[in-house]
Amino acid sequence: MTGGETGVVGQAVSPAKWDHRIKRASKLAADHPFASEVLRFYSHVASFQKGIYEFFADMPPDLNALVPKFPAFLDHIAAAAPEPLAQCARDLRKSDPDHSLDALNAFWDAAPQFHPEPGRATELLACIFLQPYAEYLADSSEPKPPRETFGTCPFCSARPVAGVLRPEGDGAKRSLICALCATEWNIGRIVCPACGEETVEKLAVYTAEQFPHLRLEACDTCRYYIKTVDLTKNGRAVPVVDELAAIPLDLWAQQHDYVKLRANLLGV
Ligand SMILES: [Zn+2]
Ligand SMILES: [Zn+2]
Question: What's the whole-model pTM score?
Fold first, then answer.
């Protein structure tokens, strides 16, 4: 099994990236009505997440310092989220503050292993709330020496939420983006990030005409799939946002019995 070239793709504290994500979400919402509800909710989420990310500009990052922001976050989600996430936010808002603190700490202790799925709305809320904290920790840390992590994040060990193809020479190099801390790391072009399968015939690729710059990469050995954003075809794409919009690819995967390697922040 080979993971290809190792190493983390450029990483630095950058509040502006949240503005790029929000702007891209509104552009895609206008272009793709079937994804507009999802993207509008994402814009609400990202605007709050930007505040969390910026919170530690003048102080050492500390999860406990964020806890007083959680009630306002729950109000924000309750007003904008689809059900049952909105109901979960309302229920948490009414509960004992210690319960929220416990929920955040319990999530954080096992955050890299979290996989959003139905019935885990409380953890999904904690994940949305703490994702920018994880991203800030990664962005503000010294780059770690390259190590062979293959299909999991070299910074926090979580699974990737999306793949990226970036221009390199006359072709493209492939990387993966961590679902939790958004660290991006390199991986070989033809290999399944879940099981390491390298046989081309076992690695299916599917594209949808609405998203010519996105490809679904599925593995017939382990049945996992990931969506990859091809920046050589569309340099304006923002991978974590375009991944949310490409719902037709997820529907195709479900119909063909593939399982997403890691659901996105909205639980898809
Ligand atoms: Zn990570
Ligand atoms: Zn596989």
Answer: 0.93
User: What residues flank ion ligand 1 with Cβ within 5 A?
Assistant: 153, 155-156, 158, 178, 180-181, 183
Which two structure tokens, joined as six digits, stand for 47? 């605007």
Give every CB contact of residue 1 below 8 A, 6+ residues apart in sequence.
150, 191, 196, 198
C-alpha span between 215 and 210 (Å, rounded):
11
Length of the chain: 268
Span 54-95, pLDDT tens digits: 998 888 889 999 999 999 999 999 999 988 899 999 999 999
Q: Which residues have CB under 8 Å from 5's CB, separation 6+?
A: 173, 186, 188
Instruction: Quote the ligand 2 centre to 127 CA distance (angstroms).
Output: 26
| CA neighbor of 246 nearest in space, from 227, 223, 218 | 227
